UniProtKB/TrEMBL annotation:
<feature type="transmembrane region" description="Helical">
    <location>
        <begin position="454"/>
        <end position="474"/>
    </location>
</feature>
<keyword id="KW-0813">Transport</keyword>
<dbReference type="InterPro" id="IPR000175">
    <property type="entry name" value="Na/ntran_symport"/>
</dbReference>
<feature type="transmembrane region" description="Helical">
    <location>
        <begin position="102"/>
        <end position="130"/>
    </location>
</feature>
<feature type="transmembrane region" description="Helical">
    <location>
        <begin position="159"/>
        <end position="178"/>
    </location>
</feature>
<feature type="transmembrane region" description="Helical">
    <location>
        <begin position="51"/>
        <end position="70"/>
    </location>
</feature>
<feature type="transmembrane region" description="Helical">
    <location>
        <begin position="373"/>
        <end position="393"/>
    </location>
</feature>
<comment type="similarity">
    <text>Belongs to the sodium:neurotransmitter symporter (SNF) (TC 2.A.22) family.</text>
</comment>
<dbReference type="InterPro" id="IPR037272">
    <property type="entry name" value="SNS_sf"/>
</dbReference>
<feature type="transmembrane region" description="Helical">
    <location>
        <begin position="21"/>
        <end position="39"/>
    </location>
</feature>
<feature type="transmembrane region" description="Helical">
    <location>
        <begin position="281"/>
        <end position="303"/>
    </location>
</feature>
<feature type="transmembrane region" description="Helical">
    <location>
        <begin position="413"/>
        <end position="433"/>
    </location>
</feature>
<feature type="transmembrane region" description="Helical">
    <location>
        <begin position="245"/>
        <end position="269"/>
    </location>
</feature>
<protein>
    <recommendedName>
        <fullName>Transporter</fullName>
    </recommendedName>
</protein>
<feature type="transmembrane region" description="Helical">
    <location>
        <begin position="336"/>
        <end position="361"/>
    </location>
</feature>
<dbReference type="InterPro" id="IPR047218">
    <property type="entry name" value="YocR/YhdH-like"/>
</dbReference>
<dbReference type="GO" id="GO:0015293">
    <property type="term" value="F:symporter activity"/>
</dbReference>
Amino acid sequence: MSKQVPLMTEAKSIHGQWSSRLIFILAATGSAVGLGNIWKFPYITGENGGGAFVLVYLLCIAVVGIPIMMSEVMLGRRGRQSPINTMTRLARAEGAHPAWSLIGWGGVLAGFFILSYYSVIAGWAIAYVFRAAGGVFSGIDAAGVKQVFGDLVEDPERLIAWHTLFMLMSMVVVARGVRAGLEKAVTWLMPALFVLLIVMVGYAMNTGSFAEGLKFLFEPDFDKLLYACEMVDGAQQCEISGAPILVALGHAFFTLSLGMGAIMVYGSYMPKQSSIAGSAILIALLDTLVALVAGMAIFPIVFANGLEPGAGPGLIFQTLPIAFGSMPGGQLFGTLFFVLLVFAAWSSAISLIEPAVAWLVENRGMTRVRAASWIGLITWLLGLGSIFSFNLWSGERYKLFGKSFFDLLDYLAANIMLPLGGLLIAIFAGWFMSRESSQHEFAMAQPFYSLWRGTIRFLTPLAVVMVFLNAVGVL
Ligand code: TRP
């Protein structure tokens, strides 16, 4: 850290700037709130035993998520470029090794991985918009819902069609620039999604199993967290395992869009005077709230209908339709709900592509249209693997470590790559960036700055490393 090169901070990124702090918050919340909150959080909570898992996840948000989100925004706004170039530039300015740009490269790869299956699941949501609107769910029971879901995921052609559509939708937005369409859309879509979730909770409260659902979600049972259980030939087999804690950590990264540069690139479009800490905390709170509300809507329905909380990725697609099918106005609400789910996924998907597209524009001189098309094509192809995991490749012989292609990709990206990326971001921001640089960029009161710095230097890296060691069985 000897030869510090002064940083010529640009006032703006070449890609543009959000029109206000509020827009930054909405865009980042649009990135954070997505399938992770409504689809993934309930099903991994179900698979990992409920309350204790939720507790560990909340702890990860506080100790790891918020400090890293602040760091990503801070780094992005200071570098004002795609994450790859931002890290190169900041490393040079701080006299650190240029290899720190690996954070950006790893992020681009993680973005490909995540978007490839994210788009497949978003495709399910699109398919469900039409099923809900067509009245397929009216009066449906648990068996009927299983059938509808099975018919969809066992048909690769249908899945490819929806996956293609979602991918095209995402490409179009990124190609036009994030500011044009999405900035306006998120402004009313996010509140609307929230209102609909409240309606769902209202319904769940009247199912008679609301207490059971809440108990599952909020009553910690640490045995369920520490033992990983699997159904083998109809019998439950359990063994002690650090994996669920790693899943909770991974999900904290996933749900806040951290560890791969998405929030960093959004930070690079943030106006100079806006408060980073305040924005990060607000985004994390909103995101957590949506996840908890989704859980409160879903688990009562699971218990009231004798469904399995550990049903896996199909969970919300096999619970919510039952509620829509029996509530007054359910056809309308159901349709709206899945439309909004698609929009929530959409505003997240664009943030997964943006880092790679910004880099192609900066370094290869591509137009955004070209850049987005390339990224879209690669990701689309990779997505086929996830599609086949639900049908052609669903057999045991196509599994690696007992996981399908889809499970493996999700596990690798969310639970390994994101926490690793986050760890490096924390180390760079806390140890390699000078106090003057970060303090100047944050521009917040001394005690709060010290709190961030202490956390990001010690607590955050320690937590991530310990969870890793625990997962591989060392701790
Ligand atoms: N946070 C989004 C969700 O919960 C998904 C997402 C968008 C994401 N951008 C990301 C995840 C970047 C990891 C990294 O659905």
